[in-house]
Amino acid sequence: MNGKAIVAEGLVRDFGEVRAVDGVDLSVAEGEVYGFLGPNGAGKSTVVRMLTTLLLPTSGRATVAGVDVVVQPKRVRMRIGAALQDAALDNKQTGRELLRLQARLFGLSGREAKSRIRELERLIDIDEAMDRLISTYSGGMKRRLDLAAALIHSPRVLFLDEPTTGLDPISRVRVWEEVRRVNKDLGVTIFLTTQYLEEADSLADRVGIIDAGKLAAEGAPSYLKRTVGSDIIIAEIEGDTSAAHHAVRNVEGVSEVEAHETELTISVENGPASISRVALALHELEVTVHNLTLRTPTLDDVFLSVTGARLEVDATVDSPAGTDAS
Amino acid sequence: MSSTAGPPALERKRRLAFFSDVAAVGGRALRSIRRDPEAVIPALVIPVFFFVVNVGALQDFAEGIPGLDYKAFQLPVAIIFAVTGMSRALVVVSDIQSGYFDRLAITPVNRLSLLLGLMVADLSMVVLLTLPVLVLAFVVGVRFETGFLGILAFIGIAGAWAIAYSGFAYAIAFRTGNQAAVNTSFLLFFPFLFLTTVFLPKEALTDWMSTMAGYNPVTYLLEALRSLVSGGWDSGALARGLGSIGGVGALSLTLALLALRGRVSRG
User: Fold this and answer.
1) pLDDT tens, residue by residue, A122-170
2) Per-position pLDDT tens, chain B of length 267
3) Within an 8 Å CB–CB cutoff, is residue B267 touching chain A?
4) B16: contact with A, CB 8 A cutoff
5) Any chain B CB within 8 A of the CB of A107?
6) Which of A176, A240, A166, A165 is nearest to A202 (CA)?
7) Are A78 and B104 within 8 A, CB to CB?
8) pLDDT confidence tier of residue A226, bands split at 50, 70 and 90
9) Is beta strand A80-83 parallel, antiparallel or unpaired with respect to A67-68?
10) DSSP track, chain B
11) Which residue in B1, B21, B106 is closest to A186 by CB distance?
């Protein structure tokens, strides 16, 4: 595998006239947690479906766990696990029955399956619910069972497609803990798609930002954040931003300014030293400032910088559809 | 921490896994039947109802035809009502809609077993559904001229017909992933059942109805089943019945396999 768990070169996927994925190159090292970050419709799931052999690329090539996804899909399937969007489970089975079926389809003997299920029960902390019908599970429990089903055959690479979408904050943090444990304890490479900045920041060793089917930026979260400056000043102002943009751009210490509706995102080398100069420049221009804040950069600032728009998905205010009762 | 064989060892074990896959998929489908009483109970009651109503309404009139035992004549009709259109195709729809089908597709499962496993469960359902009607028929005095082997052959032919017909429902399920579309597939069956010898023998039908019945495969299916009940072993009737099932099955299963191929294709 040459130390690479996933390699994609010029991956393209068209649906009729629409190009959903437009020349994506990826290189994910063994044992790495790679976060694929982007808004809905950016092409994240389409990339995952190609890498997990559910969809053929229109052009380009990809290998997963050292095997070509187009040429040898069966061998790829033996080496990967996947938990796709919305915890795809069969509500009329118990957790144990679902895992046993999954084990049989991957060729595990009855004894191996039993032993493996016992390990996974502990790993994902779901053992008390294993003999209940899945229809009685909370959203968080379903996600964890989904994770266990993906791990039943000890895969080398695990794909998680938006593993916490729809979960309440407590369940989300529990799933994060499981993902970290799977990566750390089992050494499994994890390819994780998400639209939550906090999730990518918290879990991923490296992040790829995808927008409109193209990889817009890639790197470790800390590296990406440094590319937009060491500090960020956010100025919420009234009226036209263009004059303010020009005035602030010429302030000493300011490296970049992005205008987004009534908000200026100002990248500076030294925030505490620059904020007063920025405030003064806006005051001299007689601009009404509603809010002026100084903070360190986030991945959302990176997203804004490379795509021109904010991701604007708040991981902490989702509907509590998956309130975890376990 | 893993105590299982890793992917390379499993890749070797998977090479002869077809029957294991069919058994695994079939086992899951059987469990779903047990947990789906609302689908099973009406299927058990309806054929008994038709048997009682048809015999009650027409026995005195129909037995004016010399040599006709109308209860024995109606038994195959009730059985065909019981098993036709009976399938686990709605499980396919539910799996497609929930995304569970994708989870199965990411495993190395043999694709054909995703259909055959469900059909194994369907065959078990056929046995389950035929039993109440057979018991009722025995209680009201119907006897098989062909004995115990004839009863087994009777259930076997009913099962073969159920599988042949279920191909249409599976074809629609794999193709559309739509519950309403699958439910309407049962309506295809109605003209087949009623444009045949469902109420009276062919010679008692009007000319046009008799002609239609001559082109209807269900006529020969009923003829084969009736021969087992009241005619003794009749190789000609059995051959025509099995031929009809083969013809319908060849068409429906071809459609089902094409639809399955389309569903698991990666295009």
Assistant:
1) 777 777 889 999 999 988 888 889 989 999 998 999 999 988 887 888 8
2) 444 455 666 666 665 688 899 999 999 999 988 888 887 888 888 888 888 999 999 898 888 888 889 999 999 999 998 888 888 999 999 999 998 999 999 999 999 999 999 999 999 988 888 888 899 999 999 999 999 999 999 999 999 999 999 999 999 999 999 999 998 877 777 788 888 998 888 888 899 999 999 999 999 999 999 999 998 899 999 999 999 999 999 999 999 999 999 999 877
3) yes
4) no
5) yes
6) A176
7) no
8) confident
9) unpaired
10) ---S--HHHHHHHGGG-HHHHHHHHHHHHHHHHHT-HHHHHHHHHHHHHHHHHHHHHHHHHHTTSTT--HHHHHHHHHHHHHHTT--SHHHHHHHHHHTHHHHHHHTT--TTHHHHHHHHHHHHHHHHHHHHHHHHHHHTT---TTHHHHHHHHHHHHHHHHHHHHHHHHHHHHHH--HHHHHHHGGGHHHHHHSSSSSS-GGGS-HHHHHHHHH-HHHHHHHHHHIIIII---HHHHHHHHHHHHHHHHHHHHHHHHHHHHHH---
11) B1
The domain made up of A229-296 is a member of CATH 3.40.640.10: no
Neighboring chain A residues of B6 at a CB cutoff of 8 Å: 154
B141 touching chain A per CB within 8 A = no
Q: Is B30 on the interface with A (CB under 8 A)?
A: no
Contact B102 A93 (CB under 8 A): no
CATH of domain A4-220: 3.40.50.300
Q: Is the CB of residue A42 less than 8 Å away from at least one CB of chain B?
A: no
Q: Is residue B95 domain-resident?
A: yes
B39 to chain A, minimum CA–CA distance in Å? 14
- Binary contact (A90, B98; C-beta < 8 A): yes
**A79 to chain B: which residues are within 8 Å by CB?**
7
Domain of residue B12, residue span: 7-264
Assigned domain for B1 exists: no
Domain count, chain B: 1
Say how many CA atoms lie within 13 Å of B60 toward its Cβ: 2
Decide if B2 is inside a domain.
no
Give the tens place of pLDDT for each residue, A157-213: 999 998 888 788 888 888 888 889 889 988 999 999 988 888 888 899 999 999 989
In a domain, B141, yes or no: yes
Q: Which amino acid is at B215?
A: Y
Separation of CA A141 from chain center: 20
Interchain contact A7–B (C-beta under 8 A): no
What pLDDT shows up at residue A241?
A: 85
Average pLDDT over residues A220-245: 86
Is any Cβ of chain A less than 8 angstroms from the Cβ of B175?
Answer: no
- ipTM score assigned to the predicted complex: 0.82
Q: Tell me if A90 and B28 make a contact (CB, 8 A cut-off).
A: yes
What is the chain B residue with the closest CA to A15?
A: B267
For residue A92, the distance in angstroms to the closest alpha carbon of chain B comes to 6
Q: Give the residue extent of every domain in chain A.
A: 4-220, 229-296
